[in-house]
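Section 5.1 Outputs to date
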Amino acid sequence: MAKEKEHINLVFVGHVDHGKSTTVGRLLFDSGNVDEQAMRKLKEKAEQLGKKGFEFAFVMDNLKEEQERGVTIDLAHKRFDTDKYYFTIIDAPGHRDFIKNMITGAAQADCAVLVVAANDGVNAQTIEHLKLTKIFGVGQLIVAVNKMDISGVDYSEDRYKAVVEEVKKNATQAGWDVSKVAFLPIASLPGDNIVKGSDKMAWWTGDSLLQAIDKFEVPQKPTDLPLRLPLQDVYNITGIGVVPVGRIETGVMKIGDKVIAVPGREGKGVPGEVKSIEMHHEQVKEAGPGDNVGFNVRGFGKKDIARGDVIGPADNVPSVATEFTAQIVIMSHPSVVTVGYTPVFHIHTAQVACQFVEIIKKLDPATGNEVTENKDVLRNGDAAIVRLRPVQPLVIEKNSEIPQMSRFAIRDSGVTVAAGMCQEITLKEM
């Protein structure tokens, strides 16, 4: 058997209607990852629904409701092979109401392609997605300026350059080093510069989208960090017993490992020993970062553990915080954020309400410098360092130690209010 190619999680982001789904569909089709027959069916379906030209978008948008509305609602995952890598493509929604899914997508991704329409340029969500991908630790970025074919743009190099400048300015403010960001022009509906170059843009001598994607570097797998496995679900399976399920964020889990689940039901942690590990319905001896596993642990009862608990080594217990300090960015709060505010935090698989106890420092998001006026009130676009108190014990790690376990989103009445990362922790006495 040939060695499995290296794997990269790739998220496509960008403002609604800027052509993310069409770009992904075109990329999969032109690179031979979707066959002609399947494409022909989608084309017929698009025409029946009065959505001519949406057939490429339908490759990813396989929910019926999305095909009728023509918007991406849920996260779609598709395997995609190039000569060099195999990618899991995550097509993240651009629509405002779907930003929570976009956060889930960005938090799983190593690399991102931001799609920006040449006629529209930078929009509110273009900026939000630049910030979110940065906060959630997406390491590498390509910006694809799409719809170069559209009337009024007409494959103009000047228009392309103007959009690139606009994106660079916003990317720099969001914390990206633009000298390391790849920019390229595309027209995904006709298929210009997706897999191969385009005679309509003779002025462009750089990469096609496929070439640029193949230049991503495989991120270092955090196998040298201690095991951290947030639980997604806990099943009780006849003949086996309790089977927790989750995705390993860092470290390695092996059969025979002495582990502990925290906080656990009593908040004291539940110790045990790993008896078996299963992945894709096959027994394995060990699993590592990015692997989705089901496993059985001697010592875990069904009522001892739940979603949001985190498994770690018995001799390196995951950090359970009674308070923590974090850097946050307010993205869309209807009014203002002040001390006492207690929204729900989404951290790995946990959802826990946390109270704002103190606004330590207000920062200018563009420069990172401290702002001294009105520092007890946070509005949209503000960044700050804040002290937070979870209403119940919560596992979170310092960004300087285990970044994969430090990031969170703050949600309130169906909206992502803010996002951030943990800097310091007050540990719970165990």
